[in-house]
Structures are given as structure tokens and as C-alpha cells.
Amino acid sequence: HSVESGFFQWSAPSNIALVKYWGKKDNQIPANPSVSFTLNNCKTITKLAFAKKENQGSFSFDLLFEGQPKEDFKPKIQKFLERIEIYLPFLKDYHFTIDTENTFPHSSGIASSASGMAALAMNLMSLEKALNPEMTDDYFFQKASLLARLGSGSACRSVKGKVVVWGNQKNIPASSDLFGVEFPHAIHENFTNYQDTILLVDKGEKQVSSTVGHDLMHEHPFAERRFAQAHENLDHLITIFENGDLDAFIKIVESEALTLHAMMMTSMPYFILMNPNTLQIINAIWKFRKETKIPVCFTLDAGANVHVLYPENTSEKVLQFIKDELVGYCQNGQYICDRIGNGAVLI
Ligand code: PMV
């Protein structure tokens, strides 16, 4: 099949882990399984233009971010293309123009690597499909997730919705270290419209890159126990997604967030990635939950921002609480309202 030139455009969302991926082996194989909610509003939109070229000796691409050339992202993309070439042998036959933008503010401290790598992987799979039109949808999405994983581990959870598991877990036979899979069982209605309001506590550059963070788990004194705990927590969550137990959900999700940070505090070198406002927010959430019995909880990524998670039918009260009591702890009062979503979309 010959495909000379053209373009595709995909959007891919960010995701928020409930059981955290922290620690990896070679080839972006996770040290433990993780599970996430796919988000809906925080996404990357990437257009991939391609044109057959003469010289097939090297990768050739231009990179635009919000319409402007972006040289500093190029090494990351170059490395990504090198890693995935064995899966997409046609990459050196084309010149690519990768034109990308995010729906969330760039210096928000929200990692765009998951949505960005997922959006690029989807586009590359569209080109592969143009070359091999007989491929099935299942193959398309599975391989897109595998490619995204090689760009940024957590990106493999951004291809599909609404709840995605990545990493071998014995109770989920379809699960794999190589790609994310949709949670295979029915999800209780308590969770299907979950809300995630992201409080932008610190919009600066990440203090510790996730690459460095994952590496610190290699010599970590608590690593093995932590990896075992992630399996246990995922097992519990599987039951909770089916039975709708919100109290049990909260315990696991908050414990996972604090454990992620505890791992960083107990590695060598050690880091504290929360800041005073992160703790103020956590304490305010605990107080509000105790007083109102509303099942709102928090989770954290490898930074100071707080994700506030709550069921849709509590939105009005929780949003009022956020405006009254939490926005003051956000940088410039900024926060982003998001919710569970369905994964990548061809535009
Ligand atoms: O995908 P990476 O390598 O940037 O790692 C992300 C790790 C966490 O966001 C902290 C946890 C997770 O599972 O998403």
C-alpha cells in the first residue's frame, strides 16, 4: 500500500492514577500495576502531517506547539521515535510535522506527557492503519497504548476510558505490563461520573522529573513492600468498583497518594513535593468530609497540586466548598474542573 502524504488529528486526555505507578524496569515496564480515571477536559490535540521523503536514513520531523516551533521538545520526540521504530518500520519513510496544543494552561504543573504522548501515538497508528487497512480496532487501540507507554509510562492509560488498568494483575486476565486495558467489569454508578477538580497549588517546573523519581525506587528500602501493596490496593479497588463502596474507595485513593509522597520522602536523595498549601487543602478536605459526610477525597501526582475527587451528585456542595475554602490556597486562585472521560478521539 502506498500512502504519499496527508494528515490526521487526534485528541487524547490526561488521566489521574488512583493506584500509582512509581518505579519501573527496562523498556517502560512498570514495577507494579496501576489504575486510573481517564479525564475529559484536560487534553492534548495533535495534528500529524506526513509526506513521503527520499532520504530514508534518519527521522525527519518539525514540531510546533500552539503554532510556534518548539525546539526543546524535539529530543524527547526523537527518542520516542527511536524506541518505537521496531513497531512502526515505516517511520523513516516520511517527513512529519507534529502540531500540538493543550486545552490546559502550559505552566499549570499538569503533566502533558501522558496526553501528549497518547495523542502522538494515536496519530502514528492512524498512519499505520492507512498502510494496513485490514487491522482491527482492538489491535489499533492496544498497539496505540503500547506505543504511548514507550513515550511516557502513564500515557498508555490515556487511550481509552473510563477506568484503565496498566500492569499485570492476576484478577484481571486481560491486563498487561505492555499496554493499558479498560477495566473489564461493570463499574458501579457511584463512579461512572466521578468529578476531578484540579487545584493548581504550584504551577512551576517539576522539582523532580518522573524519570528520576522512578529510578529512585531501584535502591529504595521499602520498594518491594510498596509494589506488593499496589497489587493489594488494586485488588481492593476491583471489588470497590463493583460494589460502589465510597468509604473504602476514599481510604485506598488517599493512602495511595500519601504513599507515593512517602516513597519520595524516604528515597535517597529524598524530596518533599507537597508544599504548605497542599497540606492546608488536605486538612480542609478531611474536616469538610467529617462535618458533612460528603464522600470527597484527594489524590496527588508527583507534585504539589491536589486533585479533588467526588461523585457527580455532590458537585454543587463540593464546588461551593472549593470556592469558599480551597481556592485561596491555589496559585492565582486557579483550578480546573474535570471529570471522568472516554479516551482518545479522532477529530
Ligand atoms: O508516566 P510517568 O513516567 O510520567 O509517571 C507518572 C507517575 C505518576 O503520575 C506519579 C503516577 C501515575 O501512575 O500516573
How does this structure look, described?
Helices cover 36% and strands 24% of the residues. It contains nine helices and 14 strands. The radius of gyration is 20 Å and the shape is globular. The chain folds into two domains: 5-187, Ribosomal Protein S5, domain 2, CATH 3.30.230.10; 193-339, GHMP kinase, C-terminal domain (Alpha-Beta Plaits, 2-Layer Sandwich), CATH 3.30.70.890. Helix 2 (113-131) packs across helix 3. A hairpin with a 2-residue loop joins strand 5 and strand 6 (68-69). Strands 1, 4, 5, 6, 7, 8, 9 and 14 form an eight-stranded mixed β-sheet that branches. A four-stranded antiparallel β-sheet has the order 11-12-10-13. Strands 2-3 form a two-stranded antiparallel sheet. The relative contact order is 0.18. The longest helix has 21 residues, at 223-243. It binds (3R)-3-hydroxy-3-methyl-5-(phosphonooxy)pentanoic acid. InterPro entries: GHMP_kinase_C_sf, Mev_decarb, MVD-like_N, Mvd1_C, Ribosomal_Su5_D2-typ_SF, Ribsml_uS5_D2-typ_fold_subgr. Keywords: ATP-binding, Lipid biosynthesis, Lipid metabolism, Lyase, Nucleotide-binding. It comes from Flavobacterium xanthum. GO terms for molecular function: ATP binding; carboxy-lyase activity.
Based on CA inertia axes, which overall geometry fits? globular
Our count of helices gives 9
**C-alpha termini separation:** 24 Å
Ligand set: (3R)-3-hydroxy-3-methyl-5-(phosphonooxy)pentanoic acid
Question: Main beta sheet, described?
Answer: 8 strands, mixed
Mean pLDDT: 95
- Strand elements, count: 14
Order of helices and strands: EEEEEEHEHHEEHEHHHHEEHEE
Radius of gyration: 20 Å
> Which CATH class of the largest domain is shown?
Alpha Beta
* Low-confidence blocks of residues: none
Helix/strand/pairing class, anyone? alpha+beta
Strand percentage lies at 15-25%
CATH topology group of the largest domain: Ribosomal Protein S5, domain 2
What percent of the residues sit in helical stretches (DSSP H or I)? 25-40%
The CATH architecture term of the largest domain is 2-Layer Sandwich
Number of domains: 2
